[in-house]
Amino acid sequence: MVSISFSVPKIRAFNHQRNTNLMLSSNCVHSLPQLPLSSPRFRASKLTGKSLFAPALSFRVPVTHCRFSTKKWTISCFRHEESSPDSPNSESAGELLHEPEKSEINTPTVEKRSWGTRLKEAVDVLFQVIGKPWTVPWTAETILQVTLLWILSFWFVGSWLIPFGAHIVGFSKESLTFRGQALFSLLTDVTEGLAGILILHRCLSRFRPLPSDWFKFSLKGNWMFDVLLGCFMFPLVNRLSQFNLDLLPVLPSTPITLSSVEQSIMARDPIAMSLYALVLVVCAPLWEEIVFRGFLLPSLTKYMPVWSSILLSSVAFALAHFNVQRMLPLIFLGVVMGVTYSRSRNLLPSMLLHSLWNGFVFLDLMK
């Protein structure tokens, strides 16, 4: 706001010529603009006496003290500028006016961000628990190739190669004793494991050298706690086995037969039991962990999160046992071993956990 004061010696001259240029006290010429009579921009008041222009113009003149005895008029010209957004006064006024609205609007936003932050922190903790994805140098074509070749080799060795070899030698599995059946089972398991490892070596040879966290065996690291925690899950796996049997019971038309392992245990043949223990506790955990946890689980992390890879590899692990009555406990056991392997990046803990579970089952059968 700019205030300009000037004196008019004669009111009559100002009344006849309202738009004339007046000499200001600052030696500047100011042109009084044409405004409507009702404009609030210019108001005049007389220091002494009544205003002659009160009917025509509405002027506002602040009352001041004057020492002159003569009647004079003081005209004040006020220029009202529009409030610009850059003006600090306008900004502070706007903030004062809209401050309650901003607080009301921003309150849900802050709560939403806090929930999002908490969710992100929970996900980060989960990722830290199960580990990060692997660096996978091959594509899905290689993953599918290895998986199919391993399934074919497993079926070919167990159903054709070993039985045909035993037939050529002059033996049949049904005619073998408990010790012969145990030896036959050990030979079959070792051959299947070697075939699977040979397929891996052949299919992955062109990607060598592999990153350091692939197929790692090491005694170093703080993985003993994970193995101990996994052992506490064994009772839950056992309960899932019973639940799975209740969910999918054996059909009445299906004859209940004892496996060769159970028959050897019932016969209390120490050599047969030792051979079966070697298969269950050493051989099977070794090659199964190399195939399912060492290769399949890390390879899947190229196309899906780690937790999804653990679950999918666990389903494949359960399907490979060809036993519907044991699907749920095997899937859960595969998840436990998958998390252990993902956290340690070491096949030794998952193999040890697998061996302990098979030993737990074997000892339970001996009761």
UniProtKB/TrEMBL annotation:
Molecular function terms from GO: endopeptidase activity
Residue ranges constituting the CAAX prenyl protease 2/Lysostaphin resistance protein A-like domain according to the UniProt record: 274-359
Chain positions covered by the region annotation Disordered: 81-110
TM region(s), chain numbering: 142-162, 271-291, 327-344
Keyword Plastid: no
Name this polypeptide is given: CAAX prenyl protease 2/Lysostaphin resistance protein A-like domain-containing protein
Assigned keywords, A-Z: Membrane, Transmembrane, Transmembrane helix
Pfam families per UniProt: Rce1-like
Biased composition (Basic and acidic residues): 96-110
PANTHER family: CAAX AMINO TERMINAL PROTEASE, CAAX AMINO TERMINAL PROTEASE FAMILY PROTEIN
An individual GO BP term: CAAX-box protein maturation
